Amino acid sequence: MSATPKSERTRAHLRDVAVRMLRDVGYERTTMRAVAAEAGVSTGNAYYHFPSKDALVQELYLEVQREHAERAAPVLAAGGALADRLRGVWGASVDAFAPFHAFGGEFVSVAIRPGSDASPFSAASAGSRDLSRALFDEVVAGTSTRVPERLRAQLPELLWLAQLGITLYWVHDTSPGFARTRRLVDGGAALVGSLVRLARLPVARGVVDDVLRLVRSVHPAAEASPASDEGPRGRETAAQGDA
Amino acid sequence: MSATPKSERTRAHLRDVAVRMLRDVGYERTTMRAVAAEAGVSTGNAYYHFPSKDALVQELYLEVQREHAERAAPVLAAGGALADRLRGVWGASVDAFAPFHAFGGEFVSVAIRPGSDASPFSAASAGSRDLSRALFDEVVAGTSTRVPERLRAQLPELLWLAQLGITLYWVHDTSPGFARTRRLVDGGAALVGSLVRLARLPVARGVVDDVLRLVRSVHPAAEASPASDEGPRGRETAAQGDA
DNA sequence: GGTACTTTTTGAACATGTTCAAAAAGAGTC
DNA sequence: GACTCTTTTTGAACATGTTCAAAAAGTACC
User: Fold this and answer.
1) Burial of B15 (0-12, 13-18, 19+ CB in 10 A)
2) What confidence score (pLDDT) does residue B210 get?
3) What does each C-alpha distance from A220 to A125, A150, A233 come to in angstroms?
4) Cα gap B121→B180, rounded to integer Å
5) Residues whose CB is below 7 A of strand D
6) Are residues A73 and A59 in contact, defined by beta-carbon separation less than 8 angstroms?
7) Which of A17, B138, B187, B240 has the most neighbouring CB atoms within 10 Å?
8) Which tens digit of pLDDT belongs to each residue from A21-58?
9) pLDDT at B226 over 90
10) CA B115, C1' C14: Å apart?
C-alpha cells in the first residue's frame, strides 16, 4: 500500500489540489497543467500518478459520495416509513451535491460516457458506487414499512437507479434552491410509498411481477435466457441501468 | 433563405461531409480539420458556417431522427393496441440508431451537457426534438386502446421521456443485437399497456393522479407554485425531464 | 470599371488533454 | 562509494477544438 512514502505524498497532494480546484472552478477550468503547477510538479508527473483527467474527477465523486452518506446517516438511523426515509436520503443528495451544481453538467457529461472511468457503472467507480448503493440497501432494510417479499431483493437497486435519475434531473434544474428537484424528491418518495402499499393488492400482483421480471431480464448480470450471455466477455464491468 | 448560393453550397457540403464522417468514424476521429479538409475548405471556414463541432453533431441527430420517423411510419399508420404501437416505435429507434452504436456514448455525452446545443432540451434541437415528440403524440392519438382522459394529455411526453431513457440504456448495451434493449422495449411497452389498463380501476385512480400532478409540478413549464418561477430567466430554453 | 461595403475564406495562433524519451532520484548490493 | 535496476519526474512534443486578424471574393452603386 504505502509504496514509497515520497511518491504517495505527491499523489495525495495532486488529488487534494485537483478536488479543491474542481470544486472551486469546475471541470473545464481545472486543467491538468494548472493542477500540476499548483501542486508544484510537472504536467507529466500528474499523468504518472493519474492515468487521465477523469481519474481525478473520480476522486471528487468519492468525496461527494462520502458527504451524501454523512448527511443521510441520521435519516437512516431514525427508522420510520419508507417514503420518509427515501425523501431524507434523496433530499440529502440534493444538499450534498449543491456546491457542484454550477459544473454538474460537465461532470455528468463525463460520467455518462460508457467507457469512462467516471461512469457510475465502471469498475473504477466501484468505490463510490458501492457507497451510494449501500444507502438504499439501508433505506429498505431499516424501514418500518412492510415491503412485500418479492420486492425486497430488487427494490434497493431500483431506488439507486432513481437516485441517478434524480441527479440527472437536478443537473438540468435551474430553479432557485433546486425547488423543482425537491418537488421531484418529495413527490417521488411519496409515490414509491404508495406503490409499495399498492403492490400488496391482488390486482397489482401481476403488474408488479411483470416489472420485477423485466428489470431482471434487462439487468446485465441477467440470468441469461439463451445461456450464452455473460460468458467470455472480459471487457464488461459491473451493472448498468438507464440513468 | 438562400442567402448567397455559393455560401449555401459550402455550408451544405460541410454538413454532408461531417454527417458521413461522424457515421463512419465516430465523434472523436471526426476532427474539424478533417471535415474541413475533406470538404476542401480551411478549418476556420468550417467555424464560419458552424459555431462548434456540436453544431455539426446536431445535423447528424436530425438525420437519425428522420430515419426513426421513417421506420416508425408503418407502425403508426397501422393502428392497434397501445402496447403494440409503442413496441413498434421504440423498436424502430433501436434499428434506426444501430449504425451509430459504436459512437453512441460519445454522442450521448455531448448531448447530456445542459448547455450543449446537442441537448435534447436545447433550443437548437427543437427540430429533431419536435420530430421525435410527434411520434408519440401519434402513438397515443392513433391507438385503439382506450386511454383515460386524465392521461391523454401527458402520456405522449412521458413516452418520449421513456424513449430518451431507452436510448440511454441502449448506449450502454453491449449484448449482441442489442438483445437487452429489445427486451426492455418489449417489456416496457407491455408494461405501459398494463398500466394504462390498470389506471382505469378505482384503486389506482389516486396514484395515477399523484403521478400526473408530480410530473406537472416538476415540468419546467410548470404552472408555477410561487408565481415567480419562469419569469425573467431569459437563458432558459425549452422543456426538460430526467433522461 | 472603380469605389465602398459586406460576406466569405484563410492560415496562423492559443490552450487543452495526453504521450514519451530521457533525465533524476531511490533502493539494493558489493 | 560505485554499480545496477526500478521508480519517479521532467519538459518538449503532438493533435485537438476554437479564435482571430487579415486577405480574398462578392455585391451595390456611381
Assistant:
1) buried
2) 94
3) 17, 20, 12
4) 27
5) A 3-4, 6-7, 10, 41-45, 47-49; B 4, 6, 28-34, 43-44, 47, 51-54
6) no
7) B240
8) 999 998 999 999 999 999 999 999 999 999 999 899 98
9) no
10) 24
- Decide: B36 and B42 in contact? Cβ < 8 Å: yes
Evaluate if residue A241 carries a pLDDT over 90.
no
The pLDDT of residue B95 is above 80: yes
Q: Is A175 on the interface with B (CB under 8 A)?
A: yes
Residue A62 burial (CB < 10 Å; 0-12/13-18/19+)? middle
Of the candidates A84, A210, A187, the residue with the CA atom closest to the CA atom of residue B209: A187
- Region A70-77 average pLDDT: 97
Minimal Cβ distance to B191: which of A110, A195, A210: A210
> Domains in chain B, ordered, with CATH?
1-50 (1.10.10), 61-218 (1.10.357.10)
The residue whose CA lies nearest the C1' of nucleotide C26 is A4
Are B154 and B160 within 8 A, CB to CB? no
> What is the separation, in whole angstroms, between the first and last Cα of chain A?
34
pLDDT digits (tens, 9 = 90+) for B157-210: 999 999 999 999 999 998 999 999 999 999 999 999 999 999 988 888 889 999
The rounded distance, in Å, linking the Cα atoms of A199 and B89 is: 29
pLDDT tens across B130-160, in order? 999 999 999 999 999 999 998 999 999 999 9
A 34-63, residues with C-beta < 7 Å of strand C: 34, 43-44, 47, 51-54
- d(CA B49, CA B7) in angstroms, rounded, equals 9
Residue A120: pLDDT band with limits 50, 70, 90: confident
**Whole-angstrom distance, CA of residue B4 vs CA of residue A123:** 53
Task: Give pLDDT, residue A107.
Answer: 82
How far apart are the C-alpha atoms of A36 and A34, rounded to whole Å?
5
**B49 in contact with nucleic chain C (CB within 7 A):** yes
Which DSSP letter does residue A230 get?
S
**Å from the B70 CA to the C15 C1':** 43
Q: What's CA B97's distance to the chain center, in Å?
A: 11
Subunit contact B222:A180, Cβ cutoff 8 A: yes
